Amino acid sequence: MSTALATLHALAGAALFVLGLYALLVRADLLRRIMAINVAGAGVFLVLVAVAYRGGEAPPDPVPHAMVLTGIVVAVCGTAVALVLAGRVAAAEEETSGGEGSAVAEDGEGR
Amino acid sequence: MSRRQAPSEPPLRRAAAAALATAIAVALGWAVLSLPPESAGLVQEAFAELERSGAANPVTAVLLNYRAYDTLLEVAVLLLAAIATWSMARADEPDRGIARGAVLRGLARLLAPLLIFVAGYFLWLGSARPGGAFQAGAVLGGAGVLVLLAYGRRRVLPPPALARLALASGLAVFLAAGAAAMAAGGRFLEGRGELAAVAILVVETAAVVSIGVTLAALYLGGRPPAGGAAAASHAGERGG
């Protein structure tokens, strides 16, 4: 492990975040957006962990590690609530519109 | 039933989103590359107080002593997510489309006790090595998901009162530990003295069960019927 490798991990995390952000802005399907938020979250976690590197054999900074652990749990909780909400949106649209266009595509496909 | 297509995005919006994403990528890259290479962070402070904190692993010390308030709120967020999902959906529909063969059931029978054992090991390990309550709770949640997948919610739901008790016990024990710190003469959640190690162990044990049950409840995706597994199977037979 070296500082260059840690910087590479941090840049990869930033790239993941940007990919998730782009998908969140562009995709219309709710499920795709939830997955995009998860990808962006994974990027944030990677940046935090990479930034905790302190060089050589020194122990890494434990505070960003603890923040990532907390963040993972909170992200799982948020994803669960978002998925239940997406299910309710789909059920409500199926009732009212009778199948004419929806934010949650029926078989998971979406643009 | 007609197939529903999500509305397609106009190209201008795609281009604007791509421009915004590129700008953020450049800013993030510049921020990462301009970080000072020799910043100490909080490493010195974290390791200086490690013997007095009640845990030998620095991450556990940060989670359950230095920043115990954050962890308390995180357990509260877990409970809140369980309340939110259970209040918005029901889990009494029959499971659809999952092929439950003998292989999946055999795997669940083999793995579930092993996963519970591994969760206990992670909990014990967390005091000195990487491990701890959340890792153990996640493994336990995985065991719950596996059993739910293999046997279906009709057969494996616990009595609802027991499930709700398990969901709430993590936060309750954490709050009680904080109040005990106040009763012992300190501030709320202050982890000082010999009480700190005992408090960390008690809180982590309660949190493991609570986190595992919460994750399985989130996978369930809705509140179980009031009668538990019996009512679920009855409803399943009636409904198809």
Main traits of this protein?
heterodimer, A: 111 residues, mainly alpha, 0% strand, B: 240 residues, 10 helices, disordered N terminus
Give an account of the 3D structure:
Chain A has 3 helices and no strands. Chain A is mainly alpha-helical and 111 residues long. Chain B contains 10 helices and no strands. Chain B is globular. Classes of the chains: A mainly alpha (111), B mainly alpha (240). The interface between A and B is large, with 57 and 54 residues.
Beta strand count of chain B: 0
Pattern of helices and strands of chain A: HHH
Helical amount of chain B? 55-70%
- Biggest sheet overview of chain A: none
Give the rounded overall mean pLDDT of chain A: 87
Q: In one word, what is the shape of chain A?
A: elongated
Per DSSP, the total helix count of chain B is: 10
User: Hey, roughly how much beta strand do the residues of chain A contain?
Assistant: under 5%
Summarize model confidence as the mean pLDDT of chain B: 84
- The Cα radius of gyration of chain B reads 23 Å
Uncertain runs of chain B are 1-5
Number of helices of chain A: 3
Secondary-structure element order of chain B, as H and E? HHHHHHHHHH
Report the biggest beta sheet of chain B as strand number plus sense, adding barrel if it closes: none
Quote the beta fraction of chain B: under 5%
Backbone CA Rg of chain A: 18 Å
Give me the oligomer status: heterodimer
Structural class of chain A, by secondary structure, is mainly alpha
How would the global form of chain B be characterised? globular
